[in-house]
Design goal:
The protein is α/β, with parallel strands linked by helices. It contains eight helices and nine strands. The protein has a nine-stranded mixed sheet with strand order 1-2-4-3-5-6-7-8-9, sandwiched between helices. The chain is globular.
Length: 307
Amino acid sequence: MTSTEVTTRPVTFGCRDGVVLGGHMFDPAIAGTDAPMVIVNCATGVLARYYQRYARYLAELGSPVLTYDYRGIGESRPPGTLRGAAIPWRAWGEQDFDAAVAFARAQEPNRSLAVVGHSIGGFLPGFAAGAVHVDRMLTVGAQYAYWRDYARRSRVGLLAKWHLAMPALTAAYGYFPGRRLGWLEDLPAGVAREWAFRRAAMESSYPRGERAEVRRRFAAVRAPILAVATTDDEFGTPAALERTLRYYRGSDRARVELQPERLGHNTIGHFGLFHDRHRDGFWRGTAEWLTHGVNPWPTAAERRAEI
């Protein structure tokens, strides 16, 4: 793979409901490569800037890359307080990711389109009508925070933190004050409550009459999916990844579990794969998948996801 210079520019784009989102485009200097346009979807409560070094790396290899913040977060946070902001998790997919797809396709209409989704960012595409235009997906620790799927060693602590303390604080403040606690970013109340009270079936969080349509949208996605997690990811466990992948039943899906030692580290966890110490290892492998559809970890604990 040949590296190129990269230019970065701030961008804004609008959603169908009028909300304007902020982000950045990372543009490679050399056009005409076969590298796809890439959208990076953040984890819940994580700023888009966390992924900018990874985005720049992909752009160095020829991919234009869009990073953006979901509504209520970072550069897409409205002025003033989040108190009382009725933003559901679902809107990040139905509205925000859908708008990101439209913006990306307008930027590079002749390129294939790939998505890198971290944590909830690997689940949100299924909510969006525009996800049918995605050609390939890489998910990293993708799950929707059903508490029984947390790693057994961490389950009690995570349950207390995210499913007891978070909804209590959200009720008190009118939003989740994550930043002042050092627990990720502030979250809109709707997102925090959905995370806290999510049931085993994701669609159970929504009105009964809408559930079939939610499932249908996920099934309409045809992009091949490589779902990656590390064996020490306390959120992205095999059970959590499988629960997510079952919704994408129209896609060719495979799951890969990577041992931290295989990547040269003792621990990695849920967030570590986007640190730039993985530039010459994991990052390079993801580029092989995004550009060529080649699984770079064929000897890892991989199996085809069951429908």
